[in-house]
Amino acid sequence: xxxxxxxxxxxxxxxxxxxxxxxxxxxxxxxxxxxxxxxxxxxxxxxxxxxxxxxxxxxxxxxxxxxxxxxxxxxxxxxxxxxxxxxxxxxxxxxxxxxxxxxxxxxxxxxxxxxxxxxxxxxxxxxxxxxxxxxxxxxxxxxxxxxxxxxxxxxxxxxxxxxxxxxxxxxxxxxxxxxxxxxxxxxxxxxxxxxxxxxxxxxxxxxxxxxxxxxxxxxxxxxxxxxxxxxxxxxxxxxxxxxxxx
Length: 246
What we know:
single chain; alpha/beta; Rossmann fold; 2 domains; ten-stranded mixed β-sheet; two-stranded antiparallel ribbon; 14 strands; globular
């Protein structure tokens, strides 16, 4: 598919992706959307089947020497496939033209796929006390397919913004089933515990066997490191305030 300044290039026949489920996330609060899709790609052993290229895309390409036999270079927005799923996440944060990119992804999904799962994070600073449930927002047609959904509907007055908002708008207008998965996440650093919640939610929804042990182990290491840094800073400030005599 080539529409103006956005090209969705598949290396497989389009019939192969027909009626699959799109899972897509972006770099937002806690990096949850991006990290969730990346984790699913690894756990589901997804394979590369295409790329999305567009005007204003981040001018970066990553190298993966371990994948030389298949595909060494990772481009800004690869398309991955595993069984019933098409997984998309930009390797780098989108700064320009994301409105048009999301529009074309939405129209492409509506034409070719069955439904969509969008993943992002909510600012943990506005979380209701002691309510850690994953929030969800869905299109009308998604609710028709799934009468009962885990998670709690997003409260009135809390807005979804950015790429997910654009995707949801097109999916609702064109009557396409889509669900947004929104765990509360840190706005200051990557949040692997929130990522694990999103992964578990999707796994439960589709009956997938996906481990989050690696995410939780990494989360503990990050938390210990942050705690150590804060303790050092606390001691440093305490030393500065202490009386100094000569």
